[in-house]
Amino acid sequence: MTLREVKQLLDAEVLVGEDKLDMEVRTAFGADLMSDVLAFAKPGSLLLTGLTNPQVIRTSDILDIAAIIMVRGKHPSPEALRLARELRIPILITRYILFETAGKLYMKGIVGCLEKVESK
Amino acid sequence: MELAAIVKAMGLEVRAGSERLNAEVRGGYVGDLLSDVMANSSEGDLWVTRQIHQNIIAVASLKEHAGIVLVQGSEPTKDTLEKAVAEGIPLLVSPFSCFETAGRIYNMIATKGEESLGAR
Amino acid sequence: MQANAKPLYEDSFAVEGGNFDNAGRVSSNIKSILKKMGLSSDVVRRAALVAYESEINIVSYSRGGLIHLRVGSDRVLIEAVDEGQGIADIELAMQKGYSTATEKIREMGFGAGMGLYNIKSFSDYFQITSEVGRGTCLKMIISISDAAGA
User: Fold this and answer.
1) Residues spanned by the domain of B55
2) What ipTM was predicted for this assembly?
3) Could you give the number of structural domains in chain A?
4) What is the predicted pLDDT for the residue at A116?
5) How many independent structural domains does chain B possess?
6) Whole-model pTM?
7) Can you give the C-alpha Rg of chain A in angstroms?
8) What is the least distance, in Å, from the CA of B107 to any CA of chain A?
C-alpha cells in the first residue's frame, strides 16, 4: 500500500514527508528496543515505534527505513524532528497503540520482516 | 476471545499457565519498556513482548494481563519460567516477529467480532 | 590480507561521550561515504551498523573517542577507540542480553545488551580489547567481495 493509504488507515498526521505519500510499502517492523530494529528491520520497511528521540531517526537512516510511524500519539522531540527533516525520513503520528497499528496494517496485507541483515 | 483459541490458531508454544488458557483476551499490548506497559496496558490484554527477564511476570500479574507472548521465538529465562509457573501466568512463545504476532492476534479478535460479516 | 596496501579512503571522526543528540552522526556520515564509493548495499549496511553500535557505545559508556574508517580494495576497516571506564569482563559483555545501561540509556531504547553481539555477528572480523580505567578499542572488518551482486 502507499504511504497515503497508511496515513488514511491510521488516521495519521504527517509531520515529515508530505511529498513522499506515493511511496509503496510492503513490510513493517515494530519495536522499542533499538538493537532489535538494527538487527531485524528490512530496508524499505515501515517502523512502528513509541520512541521519539533522535536515535530512532538515526537508526532509520542507517537502515533505509521507508517511514516511521510513531504510535499512541507520541511526537518526536524537537531534535528528532529537525533530524528527520534533514535526512528526509517521513514521520507519521497515529493515536492508535502499537498493537492496533500493527493489527490494522496486517489486515491490509502489510507483512512482517523477520530477516537479519546478511552476516558473513 | 479465549486465549486457547489464539494459541491453537497461531501454533503458540505454551511454557506456563496452561491451566489458565480459558482466559478472556480483551485486547493486546505491544511493549518492551516496562514503565510504558505499566502505564498504558489494560486488564485482559495479551502482552506481546521481547523481554524475557523475570520482571515481566510481576508486570503481567499486576496489570492482570490475559497472558504474555514472547516473539521471534524468544525463550524465557529460568527465573521467568519459574515465576510464571508459580503465579499461573500464561507464558507463550511465538515464532513470528512482533509485527506479525500482533497483527495476527488483532486480526483474530477483530474478525471474531465480525464473523457474520465474513471479514478476512 | 593486504595490510599495507594504500587505502582508497581514510578518515577519523570524533565522538563526544554523553552526547546523545549527536550520537549516530558519524555513522550516517560513514554510510554516505561508503555509498558514494559505490560499495554494495550489503557492505554499506553492515559497515554502517557496526559503526553505529560502536558509536552508541562510545557515547553511552565513555568520555569520548574516535571512529577511524579505512577503505581498501578488499575490505572496510572500522576502528572505534574510546577513553573511559573500559570493560572489566569482556566475555560477559559479549553475552547476549548483558548490559550495564543506566535508566536514561534504557529509556531511549538502548540497553538490551545486544550491541557487542550484533557488532560481532555483522563483521567478518572482530576484535575487542579493553583496559579498565583507560578505555576500549573495537576493530571491525567488513570484507568486500569481488563477486557481482554479493
Assistant:
1) 3-113
2) 0.90
3) 1
4) 42
5) 1
6) 0.85
7) 13
8) 6
